[in-house]
Amino acid sequence: MKRLALSFVVALFLAIPAAHATPLVWTFDDTSFANHDGGVVSGSFTFDPDTNSISNIDFASTAGSSFAGATYMATDTSYPPSSGALFFYTATLTTGSPIFFLQPDNPLTDAGGAQHFTDAEYECENAACSFLDTLRTGDGYISTLSDGVGVAETPEPAASITLLCLDIASTSLTRF
Question: Where would a tag sit more exposed on the chain, N or C end, judged by fewer CB atoms within 10 A?
Fold first, then answer.
């Protein structure tokens, strides 16, 4: 009988859905290079905490007094988002290509919300892009919020289901 009760409890635990994080769309809010030349950054990118990857990169910096601005569409995968340093670039990396550096105050997670960051735009000084020339720096915020309402949630199994399974397990195993 204990074997049957234990099988039932295991089946209940397997029926509880696993928590999976939803990819989050991070949008640039109030981001400028005001301390250098007046350009701004707008757009977004998607962060997937399950794969620790970035996709759907679609943001741009506008022209200022020292830089014409650029549209960013790719990321350097040698720096995973969890490292806390993100490098974005235009379609190719060659001499003169712009690079956008983003450093959130905390590494990106599936929690969402708003994050302050510092940023900088660089220009590749050689074809390998191994030397960079700083064009301008700034700071701002990225968020997963839309009109103050969170747009992404991490589904989790209900605590009551877990507690019910534990209660059934303890009752079943002590009676037999």
Answer: N
Tokens of 81: 């988002």
The burial of 53, by beta-carbon neighbours within 10 Å (0-12 exposed, 13-18 middle, 19 or more buried), is given as middle
* Domain segments of the chain as ranges: 2-18+157-175, 24-150
Q: What's the Cα-to-Cα distance from 36 to each of 70, 71, 115, 135, rounded to whole Å?
A: 16, 19, 22, 9
The tokens describing 105, both together, are 């105050």
Query: How far is the first Cα of the chain from the last one, in angstroms, to the nearest whole number?
Result: 6
In contact, 122 and 101? CB cutoff 8 Å: yes
Q: Are 24 and 112 in contact (CB under 8 A)?
A: yes
Q: Which residue type does 144 have? A: T
Tokens 């510092």 appear where? 118
Look up residue 50 and give its two tokens: 């399950």
